[in-house]
Request: fold
Amino acid sequence: MTDHEIQARINNTFGPRPTSYLVTGGAGFIGSHLVDALLAQGHHVLAIDNLSTGRFENISGLIHHPRFHFAQANITDDIVMDRLASQADIIIHLAAAVGVKLIVENPVHTIETNVMGTEAVLKAALRYQTRVLIASTSEVYGKGSSVPFREEDDVVLGPTSRNRWGYAASKMVDEFLALAYGREKGLPVTIFRLFNTVGPRQTGRYGMVIPRFVQQALQGERLTVYGDGTQSRCFLHVQDAIQAIMKMANSDSEHVNHEVFNVGSTEEISIYQLAQRILGLVGQPEENIDLIAYEDAYAAGFEDMRQRVPDISKIQQATGWQPSRSLEQILHDVIESYCGQERDHRHH
Ligand code: UDP
Reply:
């Protein structure tokens, strides 16, 4: 029998060999949902997380799972990263400093984590020629030159005196570095720019608007809309983001290698309308909204994005992916997850 025939017989008997995924940031909001989905598909999953913003409770139920292995370590720990990369068929790099609040308050941590962390992941991947999918962010579009944002658009950032742009620049360096490893060293890399991804397990502690509004509304507090509330966003359900990542991971290399993809929803809403929707859904009066000046929410000189909408035709063409969950569903799932937590606390 040829090797091919042997492999075919093994596959017929046992099914195809499961893929071994390494997920950096595997205890985080998106990472832990990805880990769940990969395990459910029968894959082996190695996760690394330093539990800085990731939470052990996101993965605590998996610790005894036979196909799951968790390393609590920094991605800049060369020995741990090398060991994990050597066992992986594919790396999904999600570990990063995220959240506007965290980013403006901890600029050194943000830049160092994002730049040095991604460099460490790429170096480890290169040693074993392991394919890497790298999470980037819609922040790299900066102020946005024209809506909707396309992957090849020019980018306008604000000055270096504003911390927020340091985050955007750090993720741009990640993208440049990854594409350079791809072109110059032949490492298979794919970059995806996530747009305002939300869902259960996301915390409002680092600034994200939907978990903050939902918690405020459920506690009967007034919702804190920054600026005049006319700025708009498109929110993506985390399960749709997971589908996009898995589609990219399973796509033929000629469609996704050395490419950058937007991953987002195109259902746009202003932040003021978002606040009203959430108040309506939890049965609170719609005027329970405070407009808060940006200077009072963040440090003076903070700059917000007015409008952020992705063009998702590129990923659609390359992989067939498109989001399937509405904002309605997102809000429902987030509200339900907080209500579920409340019920759990009361039972204990
Ligand atoms: N925002 C708000 N109130 C909050 C938190 C955020 O009005 O308590 C606004 C924020 O200024 C931005 C939008 O909601 O215009 C989305 O903020 P988030 O930090 O979730 O994501 P961003 O798109 O800014 O990265």
About this structure: Residues 17-198+236-265+308-324 form a domain with the Rossmann fold fold (CATH 3.40.50.720). The first strand starts at residue 20 and ends at 24. The chain has a mean pLDDT of 94.
